[in-house]
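The instructor's notes for this session suggest beginning with a concrete chain rather than abstract definitions. Hand out the sequence below and ask the class to guess, before any prediction is shown, which regions might be ordered.
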Amino acid sequence: MESSNYQDITRRVLEAYTRLTQSYTFCMQHTLQKYGLYEGQPAVLFKIKELRFPNQNELAVALGVSKSSVGVSLRRLEKGGFIKREQDLADSRCNRITLTKKGEEFAHWCEMDMDMMANNMLELFDADERFRVLEILERMQSGMNDMKARIRN
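After discussion, reveal the predicted structure:
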């Protein structure tokens, strides 16, 4: 493949990916708006549900984000009545995080909406194509991880 055609295809892939992420973000924001949540907060709710009573450090590690970033999300979620913090019985310096009844309900409905969004995005793909899409996205992520490592160094 000649260089200009390769660059053109590369540019078109990036443009298509950008349009996809913009559409996804629009749909996600619209969906989360009805729950009073912000982008990223469903992942926090899902992880709290999965970990069952984590502390802030455990949550940050599990999500792969900074402790301060998790702290901002937790404050907003607590203010919205989605979570509560309880003192750890074994270590009084540590708070454990749990979902409130509202948090459990919203996590459930939010998960349903996210499944619907994923199904809409992939409805024109058969099982083999979905697997190939996943492989391609994972390879793209690997390339971005390499770039992140170079930027950090």
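Then share the key points. The two ends are 33 Å apart (CA to CA). Strands lie at 83-87, 95-99.
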